[in-house]
Design goal:
- The chain has 223 residues and is of the alpha+beta class.
- It has one domain: 2-Layer Sandwich (BirA Bifunctional Protein, domain 2).
- It has 8 helices and 4 strands.
- The protein has a 4-stranded antiparallel sheet with strand order 1-2-3-4.
- Strand 2 and strand 3 form a beta hairpin.
- The longest helix is centred in the first third of the chain and has 23 residues.
Length: 223
Amino acid sequence: MSKAYFTPEVFQFLAQLKRNNKRDWFLKNKARYESLAKQPSLRFITDFQFRLRAVSPWIKVDPRPNGGSLMRIYRDIRFSPNKTPYKTNIGMHFPHAGSKEHVHGASYFLHIAPGDSFLAAGNWHPDARSLAKIRDAIAWKSAEWKKATRGLELGGDKLTRPPRGYRPDHPMIQDLKRKDFIASIEFTDKQVSSEKFMNDVVAGCKKLKPLVGFLSEAAGLRF
């Protein structure tokens, strides 16, 4: 039986947090964070781990409250000019279980925020060695890459010039210039708070599966 995990109030809380991003305000409203954001997210992740197995058994879904798929609400401000202490979105990360690049390897990412919720998939800022493997895979298996990305709009950073080792007139040069290999599916606030949200996310994972599969295999991982 379908059930709603998030209520519309979660967007009110996140919008208020954005306007009052201070420790004193958050401590006064921490119980709201727990009830509206953290606990619903953990319930979602717990159920999601069973649903995602049908997409791929290699994607890691961890329902632990700390150190699992749910990302911390606390920002790392050590090297950032932005010193606001809290993230104003809910983030859930589902990496490939065999990837050493936990954040930058092939994975799914669910982002929930007022008017800005989406499911993303792919490789974001892969390291130099992984980036070279992906580019080689695109060059050698261009037909498979085109099939994996059919119907998707890829985003992220790109080089202005061809990467080393590839000529400017290479037929895949526009994709070879990419530094990120990501695509996303957007959700409305109404969808997020709907009983169908889990089904929508799983359907999104299936749509993005060929992309994640190609990138995983480029890194030498099973998918």
